[in-house]
Amino acid sequence: MTALQVFVHIPKTGGTSLREAAARHYGEAAMLYDYSEHSAQTSPLVQEWIYRRKNFAGFAQAVTEGPYRFLAGHFHRVKYQDTFPDARYVTWMRDPGMRLWSMYRHFVRHKDYTSSFADFYRTPAFQNQQARVMGGSIDAFEYVGVLEHYAESLKGLKKTLGVRLELLDSNRAPANDGIPEPTAADWAAIRELHGEDFELYERAVSRFRRGGWWQRVFQPR
Q1: Do the Cβ atoms of 201 and 96 come closer than 8 Å?
Q2: Which of 20, 68, 103, 205 would you call most buried, defined as having the most Cβ atoms within 10 angstroms of its Cβ?
Q3: Quick one: pLDDT at residue 217?
Q4: What is d(CA 94, CA 9) in angstroms, rounded to the nearest whole number?
Q5: Cα 63 to the chain's mean position, in Å?
Q6: Which among 29, 179, 16, 32 has a CA at the least distance from the CA of 92?
Q7: Which is nearest to 11 in space by CA: 173, 192, 181, 182?
Q8: CA-CA distance, 146 to 42, in Å (whole number)?
C-alpha cells in the first residue's frame, strides 16, 4: 500500500490551494481532514476515532483498510507521528511577517478582531506558530514548500513524492480591505519576537533554493 501523505496545514501559507489540488488529484474519497473537533471541515472518520473515541490505533486501522491517501489539517507534526510512522509528511511555509499580516487581516474580516496589529503579533499564542507546529525542525518533513515560490515548490513536490498537483489560487484575501498597513517598527518588532519562525523559514528557503528537498533520501520516522 502506498504510504499515507500527511499535510500539516499551517494557516495562511497557501495550504488551502494545496489541499484542494490534492483533492482534485486523488478524489475526495481518498481525502481526510482534521481541522479541530469543532470544525465542519473535519472528516466524520476523524471525528469518530480521534475526537469521540480518542482511539488513534483504531483510526490507523480504519485508514489502512480504507481508500485514504491524503490527511490534511491544522495540527502539529507530532499529533500523528506515532499513528502513521511511515507516512510522508509535507508542509508549506511563508515569510513569518507576511503570514502574520495575512492572518491578522483574516481575524479582522472574519473573527471580529478589534485590537491592533501590534497587539496581535505580540500575543504569545500567535508567536512562532510555524516553528511550534513543525516541532522546530524542517528535517522532520519529507518536503517543505515555500509560498513565495509556490509554482516551483509544486515542481519540487512532484520530484520528491511523484505527485503532480495542479497550480491553484484559492482563499486569496482581497487586495484592499482598508486595514492600515504595518509600519517599519512593526516589521522590526516581528523580526525580534518571531525569531524561531524566521530561522526555520530561512533554512527552508535555503534548502529549497539548493534543490535539497528532492535530493534527500527519505527515511521513514
Answers
A1: yes
A2: 103
A3: 37
A4: 12
A5: 21
A6: 16
A7: 173
A8: 25
Residue keyed to cell 509556490: 150
Cβ count within 10 A of residue 44: 9
CA dihedral sign of residues 192, 148, 94, 2? negative
Q: What is the mean pLDDT of residues 100-115?
A: 94
**What is the grid cell recorded at 5?**
501523505
Beta bridge partners of 169: none
Cα–Cα separations (whole angstroms), residue 193 to 92, 120, 148: 21, 12, 22
Q: State residue 67 phi and psi, 5-degree precision.
A: -90, 15
> What's the pLDDT tens digit per position in 37-54?
999 999 999 999 999 999
Which positions ≥6 away from 189 have C-beta within 8 Å? 118, 121, 122
pTM for this predicted structure: 0.90
Please state the length of the chain.
221
Cα 128 from chain centroid? 14
Q: Are 20 and 167 in contact (CB under 8 A)?
A: no
Question: What is the dihedral angle through the alpha carbons of 63, 68, 74, 77, rounded to the nearest 10 degrees?
Answer: 60
Q: C-alpha distances in angstroms, 162 versus 2, 159, 199? A: 12, 6, 29
Residue 45 burial (C-beta neighbours within 10 Å; 0-12, 13-18, 19+): middle
